[in-house]
Structure formats: C-alpha cells, structure tokens
C-alpha cells in the first residue's frame, strides 16, 4: 500500500487546518478498486492564478524530497530522488520512486516538496546543497552502504530523454500567490440577502483567485448590526468570492446602470463623476483603490451580437442567490445595462427580486434548456395549468433571449470528463466560506448536479462546469481552506 506524503505549503508560515477532511482513504481505495474516480484537473476551470493542467501527467518524472533520511542526519539535508507519476487524481499524483521496490506515495503536486527534474534550488532551513539519493531506509543505509554515485549517474542519464516536469512548473509555483489585486481594494458587492442592492466592500484577504471581502462601517451609511447579510458584514468577515464571482462588480457599476447601492455620500458623488465621464466618452478618474471594469475578467461579447439583446426577452435562470440551486426558473430581462454584457434579470411574477448579471456568467439559459436536458423548471407565479413555453410566450407576446447570447454547451469530449460518481471539491453558494467533498450525480448539458458527501439529495446543487465553485481534489489543501467533513447523523 502506498503512503501519503504530507502537504508542505508554498506560503511561508501557513499552517494546515485541523480536522479537515482527507482524501487519502479514497485514493488508497482507488489503488485497489479502479471504479473510484475523480474529476480530472483539466476538466474544470483553472482554480488558481496559474494553470497547471499541462504541467504534469501520467508517465512524467519529477523530483521529490526523500524524507527517510531526516532520521539519520542531525541537521536536515535536502535529499531528493526521482519519481514517476503512475496515476493522477485532481491535484494528487501517485508517485513511484525510481529504482526502488514498492516505494509508492500520494502527494499534492503543489506541495513544496515536488520539483521539476532539474530543480537544484536548496530548500529554506536546509544545509549544504541538494543531494540526489534513493530513499533507502536507515537500516539499509548503515548496513549496505549502497553505491549511490553509480545509481545517481544511471538515473540521471535515463531522465534526460524521459517526459518530465519542466522548469516552467517551478516558475508557475513561484508565481502562485502573485495577483494584480490587493488588500483594502474597493469594489461593489451584491447583497446576498437582498439582490436588489449593492454595497461598497473591500478585500480583506487573498488566496489565489479567492478573496475574503467585507462591508465596512466606514463605507456604509447605516448601522451594520441592523443588516441581515451577516456573512458580508460581521467583524471577522467570512464572505469569500472568486474574482469572477457574480457577487463582484467594479466601482461605479451602480451609478452607471442606475442600480440601488448602499454607500456614503462621498462615494455616490465619486461614482457619479465616473458615470458622467464614461457617458461623455472621457477617461474616468478612478481612485487607486478602485477595482475598475477592465480589471475584472468577463467574457467579451461582439457588439453586433450584443445589439440583439432586448428588455422583456425570456430565459431560464439558475438563481445564484437561491437557497437550493436545484432548479431553473422562468425569468425575463428587465433591463439591458449600459455596462457591456450585463443585464438585470428577475423571475417572472417576482419583479422585486432583481439580479444584475453578465449574460455569459453561466447562470442564464435559452428557452427550452430545462426540458431538453431533463431538469425541473419553476413556472411563473402567475401561470396556471401545465407549463409550456410556446403557450407562455404567446400569452406574454414575448420572445426568447438569443441562444447565441448564452454560454454554449461544451464539446462531448469535455463533457465526458465529468464521470457520474467522480469526486471533487465544491463550495456552497449560500455558505461560500465552506468547501465540501462532493460527487457528480448527473450531467445536464453544461450543468452538473453535485451531491455533498453525507448530505441528503435535497441538498444537491447545479453548477456550470466552468464554475469557480467547483475544484479538483487537493484545492482546499493548497489554499489552506478547511475541507468540511461529511455530515454524520
């Protein structure tokens, strides 16, 4: 049976979280039973600031620390040896030490102790230089005195022409924490309790693509204690978002598009000036702390295609603020925003619950999507009888949003990577501080139904396959998030 080589964070001083769920038992089970599967690293959207999807694969060689020698040397030596990838599950690989018998181990590829083939940089707090030695046990080391020099020469000659992890891998790891954003930076944040309004919020912490954001009293004209969106306002600020989250908007969005925002008077004045400058086709005067529209990655939409969007067009909507996220809803475009690519959407029969959203965000679908892919569709509150789109469109004198203005369904080759029963990690849109071990239940076009381990099927949720709330296994370990343990009755 293989061992598990512990995770060593690339971030200095970052300690592992206690009581976090471990994948090791399922990884060991996979070695014995091949029917245990995991969503591949290249199936999901890139979850970090660097893309490692093509950096390592089955058959690749890499260097890793031989920790067996730590018990022999009084002062820690940076001793490494070659390993080959025998299997890959998310961010974990099953490595096999070369020229060794049954020396197999699971390791997260972004552990500090995984290196490219030619990496000879000494680890911090290590003495001397990097030494290449096979992982013999302490007893073998004392009794047999193996011919390390010969072994090392042979393996190095073999490694030169073998597919291996390259220097680019090390370079990406070095840049893993680099970001264009910074703590204290200002944005507009969708209220997770009342989507009809935005708030001024600031970045409190950054881990890869994820930000911990908070509405602060200094930016809010009302008492924060009286507000219901506690996770966005509480003292410790536990609201986490991806930098492409539907909750995140640039400074000035509300003013430019006439959306309600809770903000101090000086901020309102500031963003009105931004709005007026854009309207006059002038360069707006942002503050250095402002997150601008150009800083946020959103899918570009050609102007000739965008011109086809109109108010009152009908669509099917996966509401990101829905407590369950287990059905699509009949909805309408209530307003086409001035900010390119954005619309204001609301469920039909509930005009007060509006949501500002980018049409390519993954939450908007063309008419007929639910029926085509076997999903439940919540009909309008004012509709009586069995729902049918053709009947409803005729009744409302409306048309569907153009299919070309919604995200397309990916290729079958991509969809086939989402195997039913495969494991992954998934956050809860309504408690996005928490990340859970999960499995794929079913596939519905570009939506996957995900089940959280230990929870009832009524807690299942739908996610777009490009959602940044879905992660390969090992993600939480890399970014130091607690992976919640399965619920036990």
From TrEMBL:
Lineage top rank: taxon: Eukaryota
Record-level GO cellular component terms: nucleus
InterPro entries: Mbt, PcG_chromatin_remod_factors
Matches recorded under SUPFAM superfamilies: Tudor/PWWP/MBT (SSF63748)
MBT repeats (start-end): 150-264, 387-486
Database matches in SMART domains: MBT
Pfam families membership: MBT (PF02820)
Keyword match Repeat: yes
Alphabetic keyword roster: Repeat
Name of this protein: Uncharacterized protein
Provenance organism: Caenorhabditis briggsae
Taxonomic lineage of the native organism: Eukaryota, Metazoa, Ecdysozoa, Nematoda, Chromadorea
């Amino acid at each position: 049976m293989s061992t598990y080589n512990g995770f060593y964070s690339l971030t200095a001083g970052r300690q592992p979280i206690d009581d976090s769920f471990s994948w090791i038992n399922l990884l060991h089970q996979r070695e014995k039973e091949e029917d245990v599967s995991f969503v591949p690293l290249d199936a999901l959207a890139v979850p970090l600031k660097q893309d490692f999807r093509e950096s390592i694969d089955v058959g690749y060689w890499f260097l890793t620390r031989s920790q067996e020698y730590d018990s022999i040397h009084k002062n820690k030596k940076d001793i490494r040896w070659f390993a080959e990838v025998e299997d890959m599950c998310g961010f974990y690989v099953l490595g096999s030490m070369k020229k060794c018998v049954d020396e197999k181990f699971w390791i997260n590829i972004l552990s500090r102790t995984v290196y490219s083939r030619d990496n000879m940089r000494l680890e911090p707090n290590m003495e001397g230089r990097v030494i290449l030695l096979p992982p013999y046990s302490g007893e073998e080391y004392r009794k047999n005195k193996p011919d390390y020099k010969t072994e090392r020469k042979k393996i190095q000659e073999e490694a030169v022409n073998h597919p291996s992890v390259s220097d680019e891998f090390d370079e990406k790891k070095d840049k893993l924490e680099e970001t264009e954003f910074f703590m204290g930076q200002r944005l507009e944040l969708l209220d997770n309790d009342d989507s009809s309004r935005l708030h001024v919020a600031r970045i409190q912490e950054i881990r890869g693509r994820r930000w911990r954001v908070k509405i602060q009293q200094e930016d809010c004209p009302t008492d924060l204690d009286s507000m219901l969106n506690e996770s966005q306002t509480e003292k410790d600020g536990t609201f986490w978002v991806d930098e492409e989250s539907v909750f995140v908007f640039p400074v000035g969005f509300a003013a430019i598009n006439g959306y309600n925002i809770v903000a101090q008077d000086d901020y309102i004045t500031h963003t009105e000036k931004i709005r007026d400058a854009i309207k006059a086709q002038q360069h707006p005067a942002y503050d250095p702390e402002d997150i601008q529209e150009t800083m946020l990655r959103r899918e570009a939409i050609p102007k000739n295609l965008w011109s086809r969007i109109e108010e009152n067009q009908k669509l099917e909507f996966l509401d990101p603020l829905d407590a369950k996220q287990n059905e699509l809803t009949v909805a309408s475009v209530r307003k086409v925003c001035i900010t390119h690519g954005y619309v204001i959407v609301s469920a039909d029969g509930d005009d007060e619950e509006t949501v500002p959203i980018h049409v390519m965000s993954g939450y908007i679908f063309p008419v007929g999507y639910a029926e085509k892919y076997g999903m439940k569709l919540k009909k309008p509150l004012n509709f009586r009888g069995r729902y049918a789109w053709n009947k409803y469109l005729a009744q409302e004198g409306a048309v569907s949003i153009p299919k070309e203005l919604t995200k397309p369904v990916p290729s079958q080759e991509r969809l086939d990577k989402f195997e039913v029963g495969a494991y992954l990690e998934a956050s809860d849109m309504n408690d996005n501080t928490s990340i859970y071990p999960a499995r794929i239940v079913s596939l519905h076009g570009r939506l996957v139904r995900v089940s959280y381990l230990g929870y009832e099927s009524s807690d299942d949720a739908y996610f777009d396959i490009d959602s940044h709330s879905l992660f390969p296994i090992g993600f939480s370990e890399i970014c130091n998030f607690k992976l919640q343990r399965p619920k036990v009755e």
